[in-house]
Amino acid sequence: MYAPKPILAAITLATSFVSAVLLPETGSNIVQRQEQVPLTFGNAQWIWTGEEAGAGGIAPIGSRGFRKHISNPSSFVLPVCLTLAVAADNEYVLYVNGFNIGNDFAGFISGASFLNADIYNIPLNPEGENVIALNVTNGPGPTDVPNPAGVIVTGIIEFSDQSQEVLVSDSTWLTLASDTPAGFMQPNFGDSAWIAATEEGLDGVAPWGVTTIVPTNVIGCLNF
Questions:
Q1: What pLDDT score was predicted for residue 214?
Q2: Which end of the chain, N or C, is more open, meaning fewer C-beta atoms within 10 Å of its C-beta?
Q3: Which terms are listed as keywords in the entry (predicted)?
Q4: Quick check: is 1 in a domain?
Q5: Is 224 a member of any domain?
Q6: Which H/E stretch holds residue 201?
Q7: What's the pLDDT tens digit per position in 70-95?
Q8: Does residue 203 sit within a domain?
Q9: Where in the sequence is the domain holding 180, given as residue range(s)?
Q10: What is the C-alpha separation between 8 and 102, in angstroms, rounded?
Q11: How many domains does the chain have?
């Protein structure tokens, strides 16, 4: 069974990112949303490294890193908040700007890691570079052999002028067809030699089917 857990993660900001705080989703939080943009996997792709030769293809057992840079629209419009939903086959660790935000180890143990997405609410650095990084692990199947692997992400970036931008997993994410290197989660990590992630198919594609975002009424960032 899927074990519910706190689904909004916020990082407390002082002069820099200091500590992670878990916040449960509540009805009052929904009311506080600044914009009514729904969080959905509608345009998100399952992605991997190209080693798997398509959706449902066989990927090596092991961990692979993924990175996504968040761009500032202008020097006057700055990113302030990210609401993110993540699911993986088999498990992931999520980092933003080098900070460990969360993982789905509980879902992996229960065997439901890609059926229900985890949701995080993360303040961004408005004055510097923002990078999302995922270390995604393809675990052994029942017979301890390579098996399908993938990760799917959707998010809403909120900017200082209260405009929003939808972010999804697709070929604009960077990855490597080799073990995740040390320090890959840091914003200044050199990824110029990384390759474009391979799109395996939209949400609903086999073998994963439709991934659920719980609660289904998540609609963007909280007012911090």
A1: 73
A2: N
A3: Signal
A4: no
A5: no
A6: strand 198-202
A7: 988 888 889 999 999 999 998 999 99
A8: yes
A9: 8-213
A10: 10
A11: 1
